[in-house]
TrEMBL record:
One protein family per Pfam: BKACE
Gene3D superfamilies tied to this protein: Aldolase class I
Keywords: Metal-binding, Transferase, Zinc
Name the record gives this protein: Uncharacterized conserved protein, DUF849 family
Entry's transmembrane regions: none
Domain of life according to the entry: Bacteria
Length: 349
């Protein structure tokens, strides 16, 4: 991205798109009963509360009545339908891991087989987005946490080793097939970029014509095999991506708010919720997803940056937009065209 004179002025930035991640599949309900919804009605109401607080994108996971993360696509269909009816303008983004929670057999934090993950393209009603992990990598969500973040919780006990040793399986074959199926269903791929390497893999997908849509993504700065949550990693990543990128920043625990504030100042978009953080900045109390959204709305007001509603966010994120050709996709996203003949080309316009 290029940051020219005036790029920090709010009038030269898009309205702020806030993604809420309120379902926190890595936690047990006993970890935070005040803010972990279990029944279907409670989970639908959680989406309503987040939208009314100022979030326009819902990062969606589902729980069973026993509080465990659901692997049943029928439960996803049920929650999506309920959210659609309750808050029709909210953008629904299904978390592509779908099994990022301890199952009943105790094999915690195991991702499902590729064939099952591909079935997210068949959800009915279909979501607006599905998150797409890019390249197999370590996802040690514990590494950037302080022991005080998880002490006394399930993550500090029975699931600690599972989350520390977790691997994201996402090889080239899975990514290509997944993106093709999502696009064919009219669902936007919301790419999860852990570093420049994962971004570059998607650029190559675009240049080969595998993906022909807007570059909508998260920069996931949680450490543990992914980028580090500090300004140098962020700046290095931003130098690589083109100007047409719709980029949301994401971090974990007490890094979440500072990373969001940096992203907000630079015209990027933000994510919050108990999937990312459950603590106030001094760890004096747990904070709900709604309270985190309200905090970002207040800060955005101080920055002078308006918060996007659902309809505005759909335009900013280009929900439902796909392109006909490789060259159209490259141009729309701010990439240089593919080289022709002996031309070596260049990375950015």
């Amino acid at each position: 991205m290029n940051f020219l004179d005036g790029s920090l002025f709010p009038e030269n930035q898009d309205k702020l798109v806030i993604t809420a991640a309120p379902y926190g599949p890595e936690w047990f309900p006993s970890d935070y009963p005040e803010d972990i919804a279990v029944t279907m009605d409670e989970q639908i109401q959680k989406a309503v509360d987040c939208y009314e607080a100022g979030a326009s994108v819902l990062h969606l996971h589902v729980r069973e009545l026993d509080g465990k993360g659901s692997k049943r696509l029928s439960k996803f269909n049920e929650l999506i339908a309920g959210v659609r009816k309750a808050v029709p303008d909210m953008i629904i983004q299904v978390g592509g891991s779908i099994s990022f929670a301890p199952p009943e057999d105790g094999a915690a934090a195991k991702w499902l087989h590729d064939d099952t993950r591909h079935m997210l393209a068949d959800l009915d009603p279909k979501p607006d987005q599905v998150t797409v992990t890019v390249n197999t990598t370590q996802m040690n969500v514990i590494e950037q946490m302080d022991v005080r973040d998880y002490a006394g919780t399930s993550m500090g006990g029975e699931t600690y080793e599972a989350y520390r040793e977790m691997i994201v399986p996402s090889g080239p074959g899975f990514i290509e097939e997944h993106v093709k199926r999502l696009s064919a269903a009219g669902i936007q791929s919301a790419f999860q970029f852990y570093n420049i390497n994962s971004y570059e893999s998607v650029e190559r997908l675009i240049r080969r014509g595998v993906y022909k849509g807007p570059l909508v993504c998260n920069w996931v700065a949680i450490g543990g095999g992914m980028d580090q949550p500090h300004i140098y990693s962020m700046a290095n990543f931003l130098r690589a991506v083109p100007d047409g990128t719709m980029l949301t920043v994401e971090s974990t625990m007490l890094n979440t708010l500072p990373i969001n504030m940096m992203g907000m100042a630079m015209g990027l978009h933000v994510r919050c919720g108990i999937e990312d953080n459950i603590w106030s900045q001094d760890r004096s109390a747990k904070v709900t997803t709604v309270e985190q959204i309200q905090q970002l709305v207040r800060i955005a007001k101080e920055f002078g940056r308006p918060v996007a509603n659902g309809k505005e966010a759909r335009e900013i994120l280009k929900i439902g937009v796909f392109y006909d050709t490789v060259e159209e996709t490259l141009a729309a996203n701010g990439f240089a065209p593919n080289p022709k003949g002996g031309q070596q080309g260049f990375l950015r316009k």
